[in-house]
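User: Predict the structure for this protein chain, please.
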Amino acid sequence: MKGILYRAMVEKEPIEIIYISKHNVFSQRRILIKELKGSNILAYCLTRKQMRIFNLNRMMSIAPKNSNMKIG
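Assistant: Here is the predicted structure, written as structure tokens:
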């Protein structure tokens, strides 16, 4: 999984993720990774239009930007 994230960061390509919050709420996000630091990922969330920190352990799925991944 980290290899996919690192490649997306180096190539500056957005990825789609399904993420579960600390309040157990699922969301689908499109992000641009800026920095990988241990299990934390600093990324610009194209969905929320702001910088966010994501925990790798809370990522349920990762896919390229053109995937057909959907929640529900």
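Strands lie at 15-20, 26-37, 40-45, 50-55, 59-64.
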